[in-house]
Structures are given as C-alpha cells and as structure tokens.
Amino acid sequence: MDLDTVRTFVAAADARQFQEAAAELAVTQQAVSKRIAALERNLGVRLFTRTARGAELTIDGQAFLPHARELLSAAERAAASVRTGRRPLRVDVIASRVAATGLMRGFHRAHPEIELDVLMLFDIETAVAAIRSGSIDASFRAVVAPGRPLPEDIAAVRVLDEPLQLLTGPAHALAGARSVPLARLAGHRIWMPGIVPGTEWAAYYDDLVAEFGLSIEATGPNFGSDALLDTIADTPALATFMGERTRLVWPAGHDLRRIPVTDPAPVYPHSLLWHRDNPHPALAALRAHLAAAAAGRDTAGTWVPGWAIPR
Amino acid sequence: MDLDTVRTFVAAADARQFQEAAAELAVTQQAVSKRIAALERNLGVRLFTRTARGAELTIDGQAFLPHARELLSAAERAAASVRTGRRPLRVDVIASRVAATGLMRGFHRAHPEIELDVLMLFDIETAVAAIRSGSIDASFRAVVAPGRPLPEDIAAVRVLDEPLQLLTGPAHALAGARSVPLARLAGHRIWMPGIVPGTEWAAYYDDLVAEFGLSIEATGPNFGSDALLDTIADTPALATFMGERTRLVWPAGHDLRRIPVTDPAPVYPHSLLWHRDNPHPALAALRAHLAAAAAGRDTAGTWVPGWAIPR
DNA sequence: GTCCGGCCACAACCAGTGGTTGTGGCCGGG
DNA sequence: CCCGGCCACAACCACTGGTTGTGGCCGGAC
Asked: Can you tell me where the transmembrane regions are (chains A, B) (predicted)?
C-alpha cells in the first residue's frame, strides 16, 4: 500500500468517477484505473463498482475510506512535525520521571487543539543546546547542576515539586510503615539503577546523599522498570525512590509498598526551560497552563537541593 | 513520502544502525542508506547523525519517530478494515438521523478497545442484503417497511425511540410554543427534503401523515442541512422535523426554535438488525451494550408506526 | 602510531514499477 | 439506434529503486 495510491483512492471516492480524479491529480484516467486496480489487488477486495457513469464505492470501499483519510492526515502530521516554522510545540521531558509527562497530558487535555511532540533528551546540557538552537521549544528539567548557571537567553520557572516515596517489597524492614522520616533511611540500601553520572538527576541524588547521609547505589545497568520492580519485590534489603505521581503497573503477586518520606519530604523540582526569544504561540499557552497548575502549592516541610531555582 | 521508506526509518531508528535494519528488512545496507537519504531530502531535515558505529536519531528524528509509528499503524488499521475474517465490527447507521451515531459513540466510549467501522448505506434493502452477504455486521434501521417482513436469518431488536421535534424559524406561527400537540400540526407546511420514496424512512412519514392528517412536502433535492436550516430560518410558513438528539450547529443570526411535539410524541423507532449466524465477538458486546442502554425507557404517550417491531 | 574492523556513502548498472498513448467495450440518454 | 462518456486492456517507455563494488571515516586494540 502506498500513499499516492491511497490519495488516488480518496480522490476517486470523492469525485465518484476516475476521470475527474485523474484530472485533479494531474494524471491520465488510465493511471488512476491502474492504481485503483493495484490497490484492490493488494487488499484483496473490490473497492469500487464500475458503471457507465462513473465508479461507486462498494461497502468495503466505504469502510476503507475513513481509514484512508486518516492515513493521509497522519502522513500530513508526520511531515508537519519536522517542518521548520509552525511545527508542533516540541517539549523535552526528563526520562524516568513521569510527573512531567503527566503535566503535558494535563496541558493536552486542556488544549487538545495544540499539536504537541514530546521527546526525551539525554541531559540538561543537550536540552539547553537544543533550546538555544531552536530544535526544541521547552524542556522539563531540575534546572542546572551546581556551578553551571543557565545562559542568559534561557528562561526557567519551577513548575512542580514532586515528592519522592520509598518503594519496597513486602519483606523490607520499613514495609509496614505509614511514613518514614528521611533520617531513618540512613543505613538502608537504596538502589537507583540507570542514574547517569553528570546529569542533573545524578546531581540531585548526590546532594540528597550528602545532606542526609543516605547510601544510594547506582550500580548496574538499567534493565527497565520491570526488572527494577522484580528485584525490589524479592529483595528485603533493597528499596528505591519513586516519584509520588509515577503510575506503575506491576505483575500480580508483587506486593510492593509505597511509603511517603517526611521531615523533610524530598521533592524533585521540575522546572520548565525555554528560550526567551522563542515566538511559538503554543509556548505561551503552555507557560500559562503550568503557572495556573502550580499556583497555591505549599513548599513547607520539603527539601530541594540548594541549587534548585526558587519558586 | 512512501510507507516503505517510513518503515525503513522506524527499523533504522530501533536498530540504531542501518546495517541491522537492512538485514531485518531483507535489503542491502545501501538500499537503506538511499531510502533514508531520500526521506531526509523530502522532509528537508536530517533524521540521523551517522557515526562510525551506527546512526543516532537527531532531535528532528526523535520528533518524527512517533508520527512515523502512527503512520504505519494507521496503514495497518486501514488494511485490517477490509481483511476478511477478524476485521473491525461494521455497523450501518441511517443517514440524516443522528441518534444511531450517538449510540455508536456511547458504545465506543464503553469499549474503546473494540475496533469499529461506521457506514451509511442507502436503505434497508441494501442493509439487509449486506448483512446477509456478511459485508456488514449490523444496521440501525426503523426495521422493514409494511408488507415486507424480515428474512428468517435476520434478527432485530428495537433499541432506541427518538422523539421528533419541530424545527422552525423565529417568524413561524408556532415559534413561541413550548410544545405543540401533534394534531395542531395539521395545516402547517412541513418540509423534509431528501426523503427518498421507498425507503423505510419515507414509510415512517407516510404513516405519520396518514394517521394525523399532516402535510409533509418532500419536494426538491436535498442540498444538505445547511441549506435546509437557511430556508427554515427565513421562511415563516415552513417547519421541519428533527430528532431530539440531533446536534446541529447553525450560523449566528439564525434564530431557530426546537419545539417538542406531544399527544402523542412521534418517535422514530431505531432498531438493530444483524445476522443470526454472525459470529463476530464484538457483535455480542454491541447487543449487550444497547440492551443495557435501552432498558427502562418509557413508551407511554408516544407514537410509532404499526409496523414497527415491538419492544 | 598504526592497523584492523565495522559502518555508512557514492558510483555504476540493471530490472521492474508505474506512467503514457492508443484503442475497444459497455451503458444510458437523446 | 447512434452517440457520448467512462472505464479497462495493450504496448511502449522512462525513471525509480534495487543490486554489487568500492572507498572513506572513525574507534578500539595492539
């Protein structure tokens, strides 16, 4: 199945005759006839009944038509996604932290007419470079690691503080706790595979460890959240941190516990970064939406790294 | 943009190298290279950065990737829509009556995982023939016109009674009424363009006219609902019938009135028709959904033609 | 530093897809 | 009954899109 053929099918269905469709597509009637015949051969069904005054859709053809239109519009959207100028708003979200994705879903629900593309870049350096080059329009990050101020032309606001919870298996020493003070975690093994040194995410946990004397192991490759959950569920001595907004599904039989952390609650400070000169109209809408969503949230009793931008 | 090229792009993005993608697609590495180069030329952006150990997606490539996947899955759905055996459930709804479409939307909301194709066939003869031949799985109709019983192998249940309302312009004699008894419509001109003689829809209005002494004009071609609304709005002497569930948008400045009809309220008896032997699993789900939706509705004070199937 | 291996790009060549023109059959209306 | 309009089939041709062959580049090992 090829897109030109599908386009021909739609044109013929709309015109209700091959001749006119051919004129519209600037080919001969014979070409249209051959394309439709080829499409019918590929699909294995008759799409038109040929009459002396044109061509009528068969029932199969009527069923196929909306799918054909959808296919063409998907092609149009695909091409638009990389068109320079008036392309969809491109937003980078930090991997492994699902809260930013949730914010973007909320924005999409509030503004379904705004075209969005969501990416996950590697780290904040890449994100900032992409914002400066115009490759992306905005990025959800914890803002810059200590000692590396943002360039002048990049703006940032803190838009969401996501509390971290402890995730344990049923046999863990803290599995029964309703909540646990941060200081009580000293001495427990906390495993966070997949943290890449040098990223702003790693800097966050470095600060957390230094300030509260935790021991976080980032050893081993990240085999994905399934493997992580498997291990946490089966290993009494291990726990991990997980954003409170992260929605996970785990296999039946894994009796995992989410335990809020308090005194203070460590929160991950998601911020939105963008280029001050970016004229994309949807960017203003995104900023307004996030500002409205963040308003009124309380920061008492929470901890963020000293280098997090203020609210 | 052609689908083979897009498939190649996705394979290369997944494999993170052209060579492996080529093996997967059973072509040479050179062919993949040429396809990707052609795609990049068409789109006007670089999709991969070529390295000595493979090919990495650029940011544009990352933005394009989900659209490419969507495009391929749209192609898959399009092909599936005409695949014999295990194709989406195909349901015919009567044109110009929007209530059946509403029922199908409700069904889709309740079962988003069930693939659906909605068609609008010409009349009940066509629909019954299509059901018997297996071209469609079900049809929303008012069931058969008088004197033409359904074939033995077709089953039917009445699933929705849709009250008709009178639609008038602001200068119509009845424009100010909160409701109007059916008998009061005698002598008023009611215009229903587009009724095709011989259809079950025409039979419905024939009976309505005969029983209550109305005068319904079906003259003139149907130029679509926009033209109908224009005329109704501007012509004090004309009114038309419209299903209570029909959602219309009319241009600003048209002050149209919807007036319920009573004593009795004429209702259009939508029924679901299907083939007794149709094994499509989604058909059972549709019947169950409609039965649940129809339960408990009251038929007191309403009128249906004598030939409507009982509830 | 140098060599080697892996991967991608360019060039030349060839087959087959997909277009064109020419023509015939069919159906409906005047 | 003939004419006009529309679609299908046939023959032909160009160019797209594949193949093989080869070269350049980069990174790791020695």
From this structure: none
Cβ pair B74:A74 closer than 8 A? yes
B88-311 topology per CATH? D-Maltodextrin-Binding Protein; domain 2 (3.40.190)
Query: Left (φ > 0), alpha (ψ -120 to 50) or beta: where does A237 sit?
Result: alpha
Which sequence spans correspond to the domains of chain B? 3-80, 88-311
* Cα dihedral across residues B149, B151, B152, B154: positive or negative: negative
CA atoms within 13 A on the CB side of B91: 26
Is the CB atom of residue A53 positioned under 7 angstroms from any atom of strand C? yes
Q: Are A90 and A52 in contact (CB under 8 A)?
A: no
Q: Which class is A3-80 in CATH? A: mainly alpha
Instruction: Please report where in the chains the tokens 């006839």 appear, as a residue.
Output: A33
Q: Tell me yes or no: is domain A85-311 CATH 3.20.20.140.
A: no
Q: Which residue's structure tokens are 């062919």? A: B31
Cβ of B19 near strand C (distance < 7 A): yes
| Window 93-132 of A, Cβ < 8 Å to B | 117, 119-121, 130
Look at residue B303 and give its three-state secondary structure.
strand
Taking the Cβ of residue B45 and every Cβ of chain A, the question of whether any pair is shorter than 8 Å is answered with yes
Amino acid at B306: G
The pLDDT of residue A78 is: 95
Q: For chain A, which residues score pLDDT lower than 70?
A: 96-98, 144-147, 194, 196-197, 219-227, 247-249, 251-253
- The three-class DSSP label of residue B105 is helix
Contact A77 B70 (CB under 8 A): yes
| B203 closest CA partner among B275, B269, B262 | B269
Residue-level pLDDT at B253: 65
Judge whether A143 and A200 are in contact, CB under 8 Å.
Answer: yes
Half-sphere exposure of B213 (CA within 13 A, CB side): 6
Show the tokens assigned to B237. Answer: 């002497």
Q: Which nucleotides of D are covered by protein (CB under 7 A)?
A: 4-10, 17-22, 24-27
In angstroms, the CA B138 to CA B89 distance is: 8
The pLDDT value recorded for residue A258 is 85
The per-residue pLDDT for range A48-81, each reduced to its tens digit, is 999 888 899 999 999 999 999 999 999 999 999 9
- Mean pLDDT, residues B195-208 taken together: 77
Contact, A52 CB vs strand C, < 7 Å: yes
Q: What angle do CA B60, B63, B67 make, to 5 degrees?
A: 125
CB contacts, 8 Å: B119 with chain A: 59, 62-63
B147-174 exposure pattern, b = at least 16 Cβ within 10 A, e = fewer: eeebeeebbbbbbbbbbbbbbbbeebee
Name residues whose C-beta falls within 8 Å of residue A154's C-beta, 6 or more positions apart in sequence: A128, A131, A132, A273, A274, A275, A276
Query: Is some CB atom of chain B closer than 8 A to the CB atom of A283?
Result: no
DSSP H stretches of helix in A200-248: 200-212, 225-234
Of B202, B198, B207, whose CA–CA distance to B125 is shortest? Answer: B198
Query: Are B138 and B272 contacting, i.e. CB atoms less than 8 angstroms apart?
Result: yes
